[in-house]
Design a protein that fits this description.
By secondary structure, the chain is α/β, with parallel strands linked by helices. Helix content is about 30%, strand content about 25%. The protein has a single domain (about 5-245), classed as P-loop containing nucleotide triphosphate hydrolases (Rossmann fold, 3-Layer(aba) Sandwich), CATH 3.40.50. Strand 7 (about 165), helix 6 and strand 8 (about 195-200) form a beta-alpha-beta unit. Helix 3 (about 95-105) runs parallel beside helix 5 and helix 4 packs across helix 5 (about 145-160). It is globular, with a radius of gyration of 18 Å. About 40% of the residues are buried. The structure holds adenosine-5'-diphosphate (ADP) and magnesium ion.
Length: about 250
């Protein structure tokens, strides 16, 4: 059984008159690196939010980490890492990077429990892995967008999720940082945890098989394994074939 199994799902935003995701099916197995591409407004972010139980599924069946998403959204969220698109911390946010990363462990702690030695160790390991030791004691809101993104990646690594989802995590990062993080993501999938990554930057993709998903208008128009070097050209081709899917800015 896959870690994610979506079968003909429809999802709609609160108050939205039409479903955004329409008749979508997707299966993700352990250790897969899933790249999700497609034009703006295709529904990529909405798909990740649906998998995380943040948007109501109005039709179809959805199993994530062995749980029925339509009934156990809260439990699923504890098992899924999710680096959201375009987040921003207020400059006065009163938490250091170290504290934000440690919060990745909170889903595992019971109410009012203090973090254990193991939790502190997981947080410090994640900080080292992402290479942000020098930022650990800075408050998160004072960092650049790219540094905040790295901190949130470390937060989600410390969480030790069963699935890792990242929504355009490279938007503020240069090529060097992208390539470095891709190396970390390669280790994550090697350890068996699948990654779902929405991105438009494919130059630093690790040299491994990619499960490529291309979306348009709330549907999947391509769903196949491919070589990482072919990802960009396949997305271009699929979007060109589907006239309506031309990237519009
Ligand atoms: N909070 C929301 N409420 C209603 N509609 C939304 C909301 N967020 C996104 N949408 C709509 O859902 C569609 C897909 O958006 P999105 O998933 O953000 O696309 P992508 O991430 O592929 O650019 C768009 O038409 C967008 O307008
Ligand atoms: Mg998006």
């Amino acid at each position: 059984m896959g870690i994610i199994e979506l079968n003909d799902i429809y999802t709609a935003y609160e108050g939205g008159d039409k479903p955004v995701i329409r008749g979508l099916s997707l299966c993700v197995d352990p250790g897969e690196y899933v790249v999700i591409g497609g034009p703006n407004s295709a529904g990529k972010t909405t798909l990740l939010e649906s998998i995380n139980g943040l948007i109501k599924i109005t039709h179809g069946s959805a199993m994530v980490c062995g749980l029925d998403l339509r009934r156990h959204g809260n439990a699923v969220r504890k098992k899924v890492g999710y680096v959201v698109q375009n987040f921003y911390f207020d400059p006065f946010t009163p938490f250091t990077v170290e504290e934000v990363v440690l919060m990745g462990r909170y889903g595992r702690l019971g109410l009012l429990k203090r973090p254990s030695k193991e939790d502190f160790e997981a947080a410090s390991k994640a900080i080292q892995l992402v290479g942000i030791e020098d930022l650990a004691h800075k408050t998160i809101g004072t960092l650049s967008g790219g540094q905040q993104q790295k901190a949130m990646i470390a937060h989600n690594i410390a969480k030790e999720p069963e699935v890792m989802m990242l929504d355009e995590p490279f938007s503020n990062l240069d090529f060097h940082a992208r390539e470095y993080l891709q190396g970390i993501f390669k280790q994550v999938v090697r350890s068996g945890t699948p990654i779902l990554m929405v991105s438009h930057a494919f130059d630093g993709l690790p040299d491994i098989r990619i499960h490529l998903v291309v979306m348009n208008k709330g549907r999947i128009i391509y769903d196949r394994e491919c070589d990482s070097k072919d990802v960009e050209s396949i997305i271009r081709k699929e979007c060109a074939v589907n006239e309506d899917a031309r990237i519009s800015h």
